[in-house]
Amino acid sequence: MGEFELIERFFKRAARQADVGIGDDCAIWTPSRGHQLAISTDMLVEGRHFLSTVNPRDLGHKALAVNLSDLAACGATPHAFLLSLSLPRVDEDWLSGFSEGLFALADAQGCELIGGDTTQGPLNVSITVMGEVPAHQAILRSGAQAGDDVYVSGHLGDARLALEAFRGTVSLPQSVFELARSRMERPQPRTALGVSLRGLASAMADISDGFLGDLGHILKASRVGAAIDVAAMQRLMLTRDAWACPQDLLQRCVLSGGDDYELVFTAHPDHQQHILALSEACGTPVTRIGRITADPHLLLLSEYGGVLPNTFTSFDHFA
Ligand code: ADP
Ligand code: MG
User: Fold this and answer.
1) 177 in ligand 1 pocket by Cβ < 6 Å?
2) For residue 304, what pLDDT is reported?
């Protein structure tokens, strides 16, 4: 099977929202009036972002999910994406699994594949997503104010726990491993929550490299600090009730684990009831885990009122 047959068979579908989709030199798309484009790209490399044994369906899902998570973090509504694929060989079973996982999530989120590039080489999946926000309503990292509450969506730390199990540094009961693994391989982008926080959240980011690092980006951009309730953070681990996770591992996974694809955001305390109602409406739990401070430091408060040393490092590809 050649390159064009492959695209035709696994990726081309009738254009829906796009004026011109796959098959011409460019895709053509008319943005809605009074909106700005939000664009983001994320690449997944075998051995670095996923294991060679990953199910292709899960890989298709995750490659798009991590990109949609960036749009959600800005409060943007997804519309379209480009897919650049480097494949060692044409493996039809692999391609059908991959495209099924990809399109299942794309359809669920109303995001249309409008083009891409296909080449032979080491397995590598790069996606560029495009969305829209009403003009000047994107939620940026730079808007946090002293006195704002700090919130996190969903659960944290389970993806990292699964990675540690794959690496053999921890041995988990089977049911705990399966749950953690599904968090690592099938993250759910928080699109509905992100979009509904427009006009409420003062700053937002998605958690891909670890909570402390990603919160750190907000603090730096907003020139503020934060006091974080570590006990509240620890309760965010989904697998916590099913397994007696050692305390130091639990803290490391939750605070700096990475691969969570949840949202961390800040908001004025007046918005608390409204935010909890939105969380309910979106079916995405939201937990208040701290407060923004004028003092530009990040304090980790223990449940006994002490301050924990911050020795946690978040993920950096070149560190
Ligand atoms: P060009 O030679 O101009 O770069 P290609 O021949 O690579 O274009 O691609 C032909 C068409 O197929 C283009 O519309 C391109 O966007 C689309 N395409 C290529 N690879 C993919 C892919 N993996 N997924 C979706 N569309 C693709
Ligand atoms: Mg090309």
Assistant:
1) no
2) 85
